[in-house]
Amino acid sequence: MVSKVKRLLIGRPMKSDELDHEKLSKFKALAVLSSDALSSVAYGTEQILIVLMVAGFSAVWYSIPISVAVLGLLAILILSYRQTIFAYPKGGGAYIVAKENLGVPVGLMAGGSLLVDYILTVAVSASAGTDALTSAFPFLHDYSVAIAITVILILTIINLRGVTEAASFIAIPVYLFVVSIFVLIISGVFKYATGDVHAAIPELGSAVSNISLFLLLKAFSSGCSALTGVEAVSNAIPNFKQPAEKNAAKTLVMMGLILGAMFIGISLLAYWYGVTPDPKVTVVSQISQSVFGRGFLYYAIQGVTALILFLAANTAYSAFPLLSFMLAKDKFMPHMFMVRGDRLGFSNGIIILGVLASVLVAAFHGDTGSLIPLYAVGVFIPFTLSQLGMMIHWYKTKPSAWIQRFVVNTIGMITTLSITLIFIFTKFSHIWMVFIFLPLVMLLFMRIHRHYVNTADQLRIQLDVDKPTIKGSTFLVPVSGITRVVLNSISYARSLSDNVVAVYIGFDEEEIQKMEQKWAEWNPGVRLIVLRSRYRSVVKPLIRFIETVEWKTASTDHITIVIPQFITKHWWQNILHNQSSLLIRTFLVNHKDIVITTVPYHLNK
Amino acid sequence: MVSKVKRLLIGRPMKSDELDHEKLSKFKALAVLSSDALSSVAYGTEQILIVLMVAGFSAVWYSIPISVAVLGLLAILILSYRQTIFAYPKGGGAYIVAKENLGVPVGLMAGGSLLVDYILTVAVSASAGTDALTSAFPFLHDYSVAIAITVILILTIINLRGVTEAASFIAIPVYLFVVSIFVLIISGVFKYATGDVHAAIPELGSAVSNISLFLLLKAFSSGCSALTGVEAVSNAIPNFKQPAEKNAAKTLVMMGLILGAMFIGISLLAYWYGVTPDPKVTVVSQISQSVFGRGFLYYAIQGVTALILFLAANTAYSAFPLLSFMLAKDKFMPHMFMVRGDRLGFSNGIIILGVLASVLVAAFHGDTGSLIPLYAVGVFIPFTLSQLGMMIHWYKTKPSAWIQRFVVNTIGMITTLSITLIFIFTKFSHIWMVFIFLPLVMLLFMRIHRHYVNTADQLRIQLDVDKPTIKGSTFLVPVSGITRVVLNSISYARSLSDNVVAVYIGFDEEEIQKMEQKWAEWNPGVRLIVLRSRYRSVVKPLIRFIETVEWKTASTDHITIVIPQFITKHWWQNILHNQSSLLIRTFLVNHKDIVITTVPYHLNK
Fold it and tell me: Where are the transmembrane segments (chains A, B) (predicted)?
């Protein structure tokens, strides 16, 4: 049953060598890896304008130089990450770069904040998309948490079906979004150029009385929210078709160009059309209304925008499992994140991401506003660390033209560091929990690492010295009566050793006498030892007896306890058997160094 | 940790021979077994008056003859159950009596409805007690389900601590209740006798225009709700100190006398003081206000009444586990209901009762009104069946004076049957689910019984024919590398047999070659067989290999698979190991007839 539902949702299992077919072409990679970055166009310009409006409408012209600055930062990031892709062709996310150049703890800091950030990406995108939906259909408002979690569930299932299928599913709305935004920009520019727009707007460079540097920086840092998601490509190089790094680099540049063009286009139109932010109507919506009026094109752009916000979550579904795989390979996360599922995705990572994001959505009641600052810090900390790592990388390896590369990353580092600091100083009350949570995650990574290293130490053997040794054996068979199950177990033990003892735990003298008598009558060639229990416990007298045997045999013998287990025909019948065998087994395996042999007895009706 | 909390709540484990000290004296038994019956005094008279008021105030005098009729029925029930106690000294609840005299299906019908009824008793009492509490403190109203469930939880814990402790805890409020009701009745009668009461009341026997037989019958059946709980004593005979049946009989008669006196006393006072039912003030509260005024005694009576309603649930906590024990002994319920816990109570029955009652309270949102009709039917069906059973018993065994005993039970049977029929016809819309649920429970009992009988058939051996047989043995050791764990498992297998094969499941050729080479270098004296898996599954190739081995060895050999199991030092470390061993074990034990040997490897850091 369960496995049938699984088949239906996830699809048939795939062979390991089908993995290569699962690799992404540039076209699909762009869709899968950039939906997060591209979708930020939907709110980036708006974030800048909201801050500037504090200084009044006359300040909105600053949005143009700020947008250009963001564009510059985007260019730096793209150039820098392009360098990273070629320097780290096996996947050079902030984790790898920071770890290799700045040491393991800094790498874990970068990796930990990225992991948390991916969870936040899913939570934020699902909540924001739901906000868009519930604004259009207010009667859905009471169900917003349920809707967001359903969206997460659907994304989880799509991603469990496999990377390629997810890409095919996602490519259409992503490219639709890109196309419609470009149609909007081109039409808008055309309309403006032909002189059809008559908005009263402050001139570029005109004096604004109450503008401060702090405000401009804050506007800039808010605009930088458009840059989240840029790092996704450099993490995901192993997902690309060969030649992976070249394809990845081209995809990254392509993404940068599209993102930059869309962002500056929207900013320019917003300025030319004199758009001011309105809590009820988004900036993109205002522009598209001015350009097209409330017609088909307007609704199409709104619909596709809502969809892309949902799909932004999908970037995290590619990046989170890959990063957990890398952390698991380095023994900082549980091995289970290295296992590929039926459809060759890292299913445990995908599932954990879905679960944690749903928990976040539920915990924050789907409130996008309180999630976003956390999200931005989570992005810019690893950005900065990655840039710093690349600086060290160039300084250490000194390849040709290393100085100009070093300069690129230095500029990038200083910029991203500044933005991080601006975030911390302007929004500390929202993000303080990062500074508690991040060290905890790092500590957990370290503890896990230590456990794996310790385990490996304990398990290592010297091939030439450590050989199998042959010892004697004592078998104990707990019996509760004389049945076919007991016959079975004793036959098995007797086949392996002459040293077999049956153990009976009796609660009152009458029972015990009857059992001894019947045993003598049966005479199976095995001695029966009776233990008396004054309580109703079976485990405790057995443990005491085992300790006596251990003491007698010292280390010369293996001690094996043979436990019969009923296998009922229907699962519900399990409840009908006392399962004291299960109790004994669980207790002994955890507490004693003895071997436990389970002899199944399959009931056939 | 868990076990410490358990100790704190439940107390230290007790020795089996302490059981006799756990038996109940008459004094404690009366408290434990009659709180349900006695508490009905709190609402019995009121139920009669509510129905009569439909015909107007002039009809209230009928409450006196009806109360006398209920008293008569009580006398019949007490006499009848007293006969049952001596006829069935090992516990003669409706289940036993009906099973022995009317056949197993009828017995199961009686037993099933009693079990359901006990669950309802707990749910109804907890809800009713909570109603009393939230009426007094309206701000608690939003938490009424939580309060009811907390009360159930507390009762469950008290009962897990053991029968005697529960009795000590419960005796005080029960006797307080009895004493305060008698104080009320005596004071009330005295006040009336001294001519201090001047209520205008309809005379006994005065004509009432619109009274109907149906109404009188309905009032009578409502009054019979005061009789629920009377059967508890006859079920619980094994809980009494020796001589159990005499003590039980005396307790039953004592309970009948107290209940009868309190019931008729309250009914008389209600009539004399001209009390009419009021949805906001209970009849008992009105009487006690008239007698004492709103002083200390008034509040004491109200408080003790609320408490007794909570404790009424406790009767079910004695009766349910005992009845499940009997049904389990007869193989109609799972064996686990026969296991005595640390404190010698049938803890599984106690826990299940608590859980199911909580579920009922939650499902009905603590609505007492919709639970009560189900509850009443659940009582009168087994009453009737038990009386019928006793009739057959006397007719078959014909002891001295059997005819008069037969007559007692016949009268009882006809009365209880009538009441059952009145319930069905007047309240069918509330109780129809009983006629769906009861057959389902009976069916479940039958299925369980068949399973146990089948199992016993399959397990039975002939002592003189079936002896242990000695066979050959093949050991398979799945290995995933060369570690101390593998060394351990192979040493163990080699100690028992020369026929040991190591099985390696490889996913790609490079790995496989490396493993084969390393194995040759190690040379542990055991052949390595490599299975190639095109999927990531370990279980499937292993199963295929086992099937090959089975086919080769036919039935001449035991096949044993040796599975190493990491035992980590801290529980959370378990998540760090893939536990594919657990997966293999679970799958194999359920699907294949091969022996599974778990070799524990205890990690010490």
Answer: 48-81, 102-123, 143-160, 167-190, 210-230, 251-273, 296-323, 344-366, 372-394, 406-425, 431-448
Determine the distance in angstroms separating the CA of A455 from the nearest CA of chain B, rounded to an integer: 7
Answer yes or no: do A576 and B451 touch at CB < 8 A: yes
Q: Do A355 and A118 meet the contact criterion of CB atoms below 8 Å apart?
A: no
Determine the number of helices (DSSP H) and then strands (DSSP E) in chain A: 22, 5
Output the CATH code of domain A2-10+20-452.
Answer: 1.20.1740.10
pLDDT confidence bin for B1, thresholds 50/70/90: low
Q: Which residues of chain B does A496 touch, with a Cβ-Cβ cutoff of 8 Å?
A: 473, 496-497
Q: How far is CA B564 from CA A597, B103, B483, B578, in A?
A: 12, 53, 11, 13
Listed residue (B3, B350, B370) closest to B165, CA to CA: B350
d(CA B200, CA B190): 18
Burial class (CB in 10 A: 0-12, 13-18, 19+), A310: buried
A557-567 sheet: strands from edge to edge = A527-532, A500-506, A472-479, A557-567, A595-602, B595-602, B557-567, B472-479, B500-506, B527-532
Domain boundaries, chain B: 2-10+20-452, 472-602
Q: What is the 3-state secondary structure (H, E, C) of B285-319?
A: HHHHHHHHCCCHHHHHHHHHHHHHHHHHHHHHHHH
Q: Which residues neighbour B247 within 8 Å (Cβ) at sequence distance 6 or greater?
A: B25, B26, B29, B240, B241
- Residue A92 and residue A387 in contact, taking contact as beta carbons nearer than 8 Å: no
CA distance A121 to A372: 9
Interface membership of A12 toward B (CB under 8 Å): no
Q: Cα–Cα distances in Å, from A23 out to A164, A230, A244, A327, B99?
A: 7, 20, 9, 21, 70
Pick from B74, B141, B139, B160: which is nearest to B411 by CA?
A: B74
Q: Measured between alpha carbons, how far is residue A296 from residues A196, A197, A285, B59 in Å? A: 21, 21, 13, 77
Tell me if A317 sits within 8 A of A353, measured CB to CB.
Answer: yes
Contact B468 A496 (CB under 8 A): no
Fold annotation for A472-602? Rossmann fold (3.40.50)
Q: Which of residues 469-498 of B touch A (CB under 8 A)?
A: 469-473, 482-485, 487, 490-492, 494-497
How many other CB atoms are there within 10 angstroms of residue A207's CB atom? 8
Out of A82-86, A467-471, B499-503, B573-577, pick the least confident: B573-577
What does the alpha-carbon distance between residue A113 and residue A110 come to, in Å, rounded to a whole number? 5
DSSP single-letter state for residue A333: S
Q: Are the beta carbons of A492 and B526 separated by less than 8 Å?
A: no
* C-alpha span between A25 and A17 (Å, rounded): 18
Whether B353 and B122 have beta carbons less than 8 Å apart is answered as yes
Assigned token pair, A584:
């004994």
β-pair partners for B596: A598, B561
Residues 6+ apart with CB under 8 A from A401: none
Q: Is residue B203 less than 8 Å (CB to CB) from chain A?
A: no
A139-181 per-position pLDDT tens digit: 777 788 888 899 899 889 888 887 556 667 778 888 999 999 9
CA distances from A138 to A141, A143, A309, A310, A600 (A): 5, 10, 18, 18, 59
Could you give phi then psi for residue B413, rounded to 5 degrees? Answer: -60, -50
Q: What is this structure's pTM? A: 0.73
